[in-house]
Specification:
Layout: E1 3-4, E2 14-15, H1 25-28, H2 31-41, H3 43-50, H4 53-60, E3 65-68, H5 75-82, E4 86-91, H6 94-106, E5 113-115, H7 121-124, E6 129-134, H8 145-158, E7 159-170, H9 172-176, E8 194-201, E9 204-210, E10 216-221, H10 226-236, E11 240-245, E12 258-264
Parallel strand pairs: 3-4, 3-6, 4-5, 6-7
Antiparallel strand pairs: 1-2, 7-12, 8-9, 9-10, 11-12
Length: 277
């Protein structure tokens, strides 16, 4: 069954409400959605809510050269540039990259942008990096396990021998288990925009984003669980994985809106993997 979304440019696409494919994002991030995305994030409020978490994690590991593979509208690329990191900004959605470049220019930066599909990242982006960040719940655009494994392998290959991957995801465990709270304290800080699940099962989380004036857009995501993501990371080769809940080291499983996985490539015998309570 297909349904036409009645807003912006998404109404030009016949979007399957049950679509479970890694190609969905190509039709979802249309120009009108990209232009409104920053209303959802609210850069100033987001900066205050997350503080220096990502900057601190990267500096603690000596990272200097960072690949932002889910640039979106450029929030983290710009923040890292302003913190002194060398950043390359990649995304699969051309409209988001265009908005990111414009956002960077308005703040006095020229972003180095590359349109790239993660599954063939090494084809489109060159060089080795101290760190890769994949934020904004972007990894859950991948519906097929082979695509998730291929993507993580591409990330792993592009990191230096002691590199680190920082990847986040929604707390789909809580969503699937009926404990979804969506406090929206840290990630989606725009007060005038709602982001709510319309449909949820073990293979699909369909979110509706409603903006002032009634405009709305949809994203179909794959609700992968925290421990599954950690297992995939280990199987690809990452040696030590720390998982935070809304930037906190300790948390109750149903509390966080987002999980943040920090996966190290370097093998260190004296550093056992951190597990959560």
């Amino acid at each position: 069954m297909t349904s036409t979304i009645q807003t912006g440019e998404q109404d030009q696409q016949s979007i399957d409400v049950d679509s479970r494919h890694s190609e969905n994002y190509k039709h979802e991030y249309v120009k009108s959605f990209a232009e409104r995305w920053d209303d959802l994030i609210d850069w100033e409020a987001r900066s205050k809510s997350e503080g220096s978490f990502f900057i601190d994690v990267l500096r603690q590991r000596g990272a200097k050269k960072v690949l932002d593979v889910a640039t979106g509208t450029g929030f983290h690329s710009v923040r890292l540039l302003e913190a002194g990191f060398e950043v390359v900004s990649a995304d699969g959605a051309a409209e988001m990259l265009a908005k990111a470049f414009d956002n960077g220019r308005k703040r006095g930066h020229i972003l180095r942008v590359v349109q790239a599909d993660w599954r063939w990242l090494n084809r489109d982006v060159h060089g080795e990096y101290d760190a890769i960040i994949c934020l904004g719940n972007s990894f859950t655009h991948l519906f097929e396990e082979r695509d998730r494994r291929k993507t993580l392998a591409e990330f792993y290959a592009m990191l230096r021998h002691d590199g680190v991957l920082i990847l986040d995801q929604r707390n789909y465990d809580a969503l699937l288990d009926g404990k979804y709270g969506n406090k929206r304290k840290y990630y989606y800080c725009g007060e005038s925009v709602t982001a709510e699940p319309e449909r949820i099962d073990e293979g699909l989380a369909r979110f509706r984003y409603t903006f002032p004036g009634g405009d709305y857009f949809h994203l179909n995501m794959c609700p992968i669980r925290k421990d599954y993501v950690r297992r995939l990371m280990r199987e690809v080769g990452f040696q030590r994985i720390e998982t935070y809940g809304d930037f906190q080291e300790t948390f109750r499983e149903d509390e966080p809106d987002f999980y943040i996985h920090v996966a190290e490539k370097e093998y260190r015998m004296d550093s056992p993997e951190k597990t959560e309570e």
